[in-house]
Predict the 3D structure of the following.
Amino acid sequence: MNIILLSGGSGKRLWPLSNDIRSKQFIKLFKDDAGNYESMVQRVYRQIASVDPSAKVTIATSKSQASAIHNQLGEKVSVCVEPCRRDTFPAILLAAAYLHDELGVSEEESVAVCPVDPYVDDSYYSCVEELGEIVQRNQANLTLMGIEPTYPSEKYGYIIPESSERISRVKEFKEKPDRETAQKYLERNALWNAGVFAFRLGYLIEKAHSLFSFTDYRDLYAKYETLTKISFDYAVVEKESSIQVVRYHGDWKDVGTWNMMAEVMADSIKGRAVMDDACENTHIVNELNIPIICMGCKDMVIAASGDGILVSDKERSGYMKPYVEQVSADAMYAEKSWGTYTVMDVQSGSMTVKLSMRAGERMTYHSHDYREEVWTVVSGTGKAVVDGMEQILRTGDVVTVAAGCRHMILAETNLDIVEVQIGENISVADKKKYSLEEE
Amino acid sequence: MNIILLSGGSGKRLWPLSNDIRSKQFIKLFKDDAGNYESMVQRVYRQIASVDPSAKVTIATSKSQASAIHNQLGEKVSVCVEPCRRDTFPAILLAAAYLHDELGVSEEESVAVCPVDPYVDDSYYSCVEELGEIVQRNQANLTLMGIEPTYPSEKYGYIIPESSERISRVKEFKEKPDRETAQKYLERNALWNAGVFAFRLGYLIEKAHSLFSFTDYRDLYAKYETLTKISFDYAVVEKESSIQVVRYHGDWKDVGTWNMMAEVMADSIKGRAVMDDACENTHIVNELNIPIICMGCKDMVIAASGDGILVSDKERSGYMKPYVEQVSADAMYAEKSWGTYTVMDVQSGSMTVKLSMRAGERMTYHSHDYREEVWTVVSGTGKAVVDGMEQILRTGDVVTVAAGCRHMILAETNLDIVEVQIGENISVADKKKYSLEEE
């Protein structure tokens, strides 16, 4: 079975833990069976692997998430990176072409596409496996999963099936309705459309050739920027008459707000925090290294990271978007391919950053035009290359890198460095990359 | 008129803005007439100066507060520093001896003693002035201010006067009563004892000689550690039969909890923060450089500093002491004689600190046995002396100071430095001081 996980969307709905460069699927608020914290993407992968250890998982994502996926899942999954943002149809197509041309998946094999962010139990992935098996029966071109609704929600699209059987042909699709209309859909055995569908790989490849002119994955990748932005629903689902749906009635939660996240978090407190006895139904997530004390908080969520602090009534947490836009500045924390990057201090003309590199990782060789950097190694050992000269890094060593000077760091052990950036135009955009082999 | 302001008490009742080394009287939450933020101690001084521009103010305080007082009031006040902590009688006596022997105040002059921390209107200091005038009439040995109670409080001691006249002889003193007893005191025209009293300077000096053997201020200072810990109330007030009290009925607030502080803060938000429209009766103080968003908070106080974050129902804020003790670590922020010291990062074997020095200020010449330091100048200019060698400091300069090496910094302009401390036993206690002149 091939599974394409769509890991898109940078968003601020779980601010300050999610931001422009850090998506909610990477926040570690769940726990695995051994009691270790895990993120949504780690949980999803673990669930798939436990249901079907032979499943081949490919994550379709954007450049900005590739490092975080690599950090959290290592080499266990294939990653198909969009060169730029197009809508869901181009993204799924690119992943399908990647499966076909890079991984050698046959056109006859089943492929299921799933979003990476619902909170579900393992039976959801058993149902995904079942979609793949049904696809092999060739009874329909597309096979969808429909979620049994628990209430007449206005937040989801609906699938109207022809019958109430567990597997049924689809009669029609409906956009998000008002509550009254939703109630009527429920009387017609309608299901929530959760964006899970399966097909033969060849089906999608053929579909794509009718819409875009391309030869293979690499050609599609090269032309990606020229593709029309079009959603999978609009390009494929709405035009397809041969669709069936499988009813899923297990747990399914859309953890798009802190209120919902609090329901499924492993612990009511993560990080340094205490609550007094007068606190009720309150959740705290603290990524800062200073403590939080909560006194008499009721039905609240408190979340703190290097980007900011949220103190919210749970019900109100879904309405914070305009306030986040009002306050948000550059993200203060990022996961890099080599570890983490935390801004500690910003003032006019300088920025102080902590780099925590994982043993064995290295940066790309690069330079900055508008800033110099002073590195102080606070723990660990590694090597730096500065203008082609290699030098050893040990605790207490200081390296000054002038503007324009090419440099990189390689961590031998876990390596922590305080980096002071000095210059009048400090920006993430001020970066030129080089190949180290040219030196 | 001479006023001794007692600035004691490091406490955590306004945590995380007050801590072991930063008292509540230095937190800037009020505003002066020009709209600039000011602290309690700045507000008190401004009020005294506006009521009596010729008042001579001496602040009796501990070593740990001397720098903060100097930072906030400059040379406008005299500061009498206790060499170690003894109770209120030794502290007041030391200040009285300081007035007499160092400032040349005559024994006939009036001296008023006031705590530095109540929130009052200017008429309070007019009443203090009046105490001094009454003292000169020699009708009693001690003249106290009594606060007209607004309710039968269990939190204060009571003064029972002989009559309900504005100025009356004192009949007796009562410890903090229960509510019922307090109600009975109120029926007897009782007043809250706010710790404000005035006397002829000679009265206290004589009193002191009957209790301790000393010649003058310097002798008393040298012997200070040997003095018995005894409160002014116990040593003087309870033994004195000739006492009168002046009724004060203006505003008087004891801002000892966040709930009370919120009532008198100049703004409902100080620092980077936003509240949504569903917030009610909520106050935010944010000293961090990251934003706070509050959604749907009712009757709450949120306070954040480098030491931690408090999220509290206002009524509950008075009960946080045990929780603060549970979480609190070393203070992360300190006012020094030369500026401010902010801890940015702590890990095993290292600590990263930001030093912000004011133009013209200098550190003492010192060394550390167990850590090396790497300084990176992020803005400003100054000079460093390292093992007797002077060197210029400019933006981008890096200085490494080995363990054992003597050093100091002098700021020519405002000077910001990121200091990385490296060593296995980093502690504020690891400091040896030297005279620079010896070099």
Observations:
- The two ends of chain A are 45 Å apart (CA to CA).
- Chain A touches chain B through 63 residues (CB under 8 Å).
- Chain A has ten helices and 30 strands.
- The longest strand of chain A covers residues 191-200.
